[in-house]
Amino acid sequence: MPHTTQIVGGPNARTDYHINQTPEWFYQHRGAMLLKVVDDGVFRDIVIRQGDMFLLPPNTPHNPVRFANTVGIVLEQRRPAESIDRMRWYCGSCDGGVVVHEAAFHCTDLGTQIKRAVEDFKQDDEKRRCKQCGELANWAPPPGSIPDPNLVAAS
Q1: Name one Pfam family in it (predicted).
Q2: Using alpha carbons only, how large is the chain's radius of gyration in Å?
Q3: What does pLDDT average to over the chain?
Q4: With contact defined as beta carbons under 8 Å apart, do 15 and 143 qualify?
Q5: 2 in Cβ contact with 22 (< 8 Å)
Q6: What local confidence, expressed as pLDDT, does residue 154 receive?
Q7: What is the Cα–Cα distance from 145 to 50, expressed in whole angstroms?
Q8: How far apart are CA 132 and CA 29, in angstroms?
Q9: Which of 41, 94, 127, 136 would be 101's cystine partner, CB 3.0–4.6 Å?
Q10: Each residue of 73-90: pLDDT tens digit?
Q11: What does the DSSP 8-state code read for residue 119?
Q12: CA distance 124 to 128
């Protein structure tokens, strides 16, 4: 099956969770990254350290957090014609993974399509407002809110 290879450097700062109907393979070439996932409704943080690899199952909401001076490689299958990618934002105030907004698209150019979805979310308070509690969801994490595993000793 044809695939797309991405070489990705940090830092980045987003709050969305990407949902891909095909698996994604992560290899961390330099430094460590944090892969935030929603696994059966539970939010988990997976640290992928230099030299490690991780296979993300299909349909797993994930937010890859990359830090300064890090480089990773991501392999994704080319999307079948009927495949739909989704970008999902959750409420940071409500328990239980309340979805604030979800954008869906057939992926042809992930970089531009993610940027477009994030900009659209960022600029629309109605899309950012939680229907359950009224909180306005962040489009980017507050500075310093995500600990950099490259600055913390491995446990």
Answers
A1: 3-HAO
A2: 15
A3: 93
A4: no
A5: no
A6: 57
A7: 22
A8: 41
A9: 127
A10: 999 998 888 999 999 999
A11: H
A12: 6
Here the tokens at position 69 are 């001076």
Write down the pTM of the prediction: 0.92
**Cα separation of 141 and 109, whole Å?**
24
Cα separation, 73 vs 134, whole angstroms: 38
> What is the token pair recorded at 67?
């830090």
Q: Which are the contacts of 147, defined by CB distance < 8 A and separation ≥ 6?
A: none
CB 10 within 8 A of CB 69: yes
Please name the residue that has the structure tokens 């480089």.
71
First-to-last alpha carbon distance for the chain, in angstroms, is 37
Query: Can you list the domains of the chain with their CATH numbers?
Result: 3-128 (2.60.120.10)
CA 20 and chain centroid, separation: 10
**Per-residue pLDDT at 153:** 64
26-74: pLDDT as tens digits: 999 999 999 999 998 899 999 999 999 999 999 999 999 999 999 999 9
**Side chain identity, residue 151:** L
Tokens of 68: 């300064």
Is the bond preceding residue 11 a cis peptide, omega within 30 degrees?
yes
